[in-house]
Amino acid sequence: MAKFLIDLVAQKFPSAVIASHSHHGDETILLEAASWRAVAQFLRDDPRTAMDMLVDLTAVDYPDRDPRFEIVVHLLSLGKGHRLRIKTRVGDPEGESVRVDTLSDLWASANWAEREAYDLFGVTFVGHPDLRRILLYPEFEGHPLRKDYPAEQIQPLIAYRDVENIEKIAPFGRDEGMPFGRQTHARGLGGPEEESN
Amino acid sequence: MEPLDQELDESELEIPTEPMLLNVGPAHPAMHGTVRCVMELSGESIEKVDVQVGYLHRGFEKMCERGTWTQVFPYVDRCNYVSPMLNNVAFALACEKMLEIQVPERCQWYRMALGELARISDHLTCDGAMAMELGAFTPFLWMIKGREMVWDLMEEETGARLTHSFGRVGGMAQPPTEGFKENARAVGRHILTIIDEVEKLLLGNRIFLDRLENVGIISQEDAVSLGWTGPCLRATGIPYDVRKASPYLKYGEVDFEVPVGQTSDCFDRFMVRIEEMKQSVRIVEQCLARMPDSGPVNVDDPRVILPPKQDVYNTIEGTIQHFKIVMEGLKLPAGELYSYTEGGNGELGFYLVSDGSGTPWRVRIRPPCYYITSGLERVITGRMMADVVPCFGSLNMIGGECDR
């Protein structure tokens, strides 16, 4: 139905498209991670595509592959009624350097969706304004939807959070909404480098 | 006589300028027990808000990767727990789309009727709770009475009031009971009466209207950009309904309207749900009229449907078939698929990745109210503290679905 979308993207970004298919009627394009944002912006802004809604953003872990993670985005054009799935692959087999450009400034819905993918898969979205855990608590160790995270793993108990100067602390400091709550940003933006220390 | 405010104009008043930080939830009743809002208040107006979800996260998507495809049904039940039948049907449809099978006509009508009843129960809960949170307790009790009728009917059909786990890949767990049509018609009539009574109680009520009208307005562009679907998107005036836009089951063959709002305030969201319930009753009536009284409910496909118990206990083929489906799970062809239906809150999607074995590789549930809740920040920033309650209520955040 929306085959022309694949052709359009392949025409406009010939080097970005790795593969495409239309299994079960879902038009899918696999993109180079480097042109992820550019293609997404084109799909949103071009009047022929007019993808005004990012329906869903998620990740899938394939531990045997390199790059290991697949970022999957489902787009919908409300006006034209067509849908498209775009994917990209990032990360090495050890699960490090999982980085991809953020789409949160193109579609507001990507904000929380990317936070969820960061939380559960450990994907860092470069340029995300507020990348911290959303479903889990900040002290959680690991990323549970990775295949190498055992489902029966037990998390260590966490101590009471010690917040100094609770009366004096400026509310909403450096991208931090919660002086007496989740202190994700105490260690920086939570990217893989910061996480290791 | 001197004006009273003269003194105020001339002298500098010492008003504390430090913003006040207020923590609402997760245990606050208006936050439905699972959302926490950290608000920065200036006086009574909200300058900034940080919405935090995740208090009901139970790791469903991880758990789904441990069992068979059939064992996913209890998890999707517990996602949107006020309309579990819609989730059941949505997941069954996703698997069937992957297997490229279609359930018999009787089952399609049955699924639609049950699904629309579940939608009624969802909207009754949302609108009822909204009214209750604004102090109108009577409509809440009346609507919950209506929901009880729906749940009694569900119990009659499925054996469970809330978490039915009634869907199956390729059909339903049981055929409709003998009295289903009669009972469902009676429920539909009662629901219409209840909605009528509730409208009489609420829509002339000054307090109720003042707290909803022109509160929580969101623009169409914002709603689309935030990924809103369902009643909340339709309240902004965009008539997007998956049942109309890309009909599944038999939605293309029934008559119903898609109600839309005009100002996209809380009142519009309330009214869209009220109208949708009336439309749902209409759909249920059409389904009942067209559903055959006899005929198969499950597809005749030994790959996915358990053999009759008679065969399981008496023939070796039946035993083996039963054993293989139960132990190994039914096998979906390798590949990926996104299937979407209209859930209680909007587009309920399932992104399935199968590696061809009996265990899901990835089950991604696209929860409509996760995206809707992400818009709460935009809806309430700049409003008064008291507006949080109707705004949050009108978004119909369902904790199980939002946090999974």
Explain this structure to me?
The complex is a heterodimer of chains A (197) and B (404). With 197 residues, chain A is an alpha/beta fold. Chain A has helices at 3-12, 36-45, 109-121, 192-196, and strands at 17-21, 28-31, 53-61, 69-76, 83-90, 99-101, 124-126. Chain A has one domain (3-164): NADH:ubiquinone oxidoreductase Nqo5 subunit (Beta Polymerase, domain 2, 2-Layer Sandwich). Chain A is built from 4 helices and 7 strands, in the order αββαββββαβα. In chain A, a hairpin with a 7-residue loop joins strand 3 and strand 4. The longest helix of chain A has 13 residues, at 109-121. Helices cover 48% and strands 12% of the residues of chain B. Chain B is built from 18 helices and 8 strands. In chain B, strand 7 (347-354) and strand 8 form a beta hairpin. In chain B, helix 4 (84-99) packs antiparallel against helix 5 and helix 5 packs antiparallel against helix 17 (388-395). The longest helix of chain B is centred in the N-terminal third of the chain and has 29 residues, at 105-133. The relative contact order of chain B is 0.18. The model of chain B has no long low-confidence stretch (mean pLDDT 87). Chains A and B meet through strand 3 and helix 3 of A and strand 2, strand 3, helix 2, helix 9 and strand 6 of B.
Output the keywords.
heterodimer; A: 197 residues; alpha/beta; Beta Polymerase, domain 2; 5-stranded mixed sheet; two-stranded parallel sheet; globular; B: 404 residues; mainly alpha; Cytochrome-c3 Hydrogenase, chain B; 3-stranded antiparallel sheet; 18 helices; 8 strands; 48% helix
What structural class do the secondary elements of chain A suggest?
A: alpha/beta
Shape of chain A: globular
**Largest sheet, strands/sense/barrel of chain A:** 5 strands, mixed
Rg from Cα of chain A = 19 Å
Question: Helix and strand succession of chain B?
Answer: HEEEHHHHHEEHHHHHHHHEEEHHHH
List the domain count of chain B as a whole number: 1
Number of helices of chain B: 18
Strand order of the largest sheet of chain A: 1-2-5-4-3
* Topology order of chain A in helix (H) and strand (E) letters: HEEHEEEEHEH
CATH level-four homologous superfamily name of chain A: NADH:ubiquinone oxidoreductase Nqo5 subunit
N-to-C span of chain A: 50 Å
Q: Please report the distance between the alpha carbons of the first and last residues of chain B.
A: 65 Å
**CATH homologous superfamily heading of chain B:** Cytochrome-c3 Hydrogenase, chain B
Global shape of chain B: globular
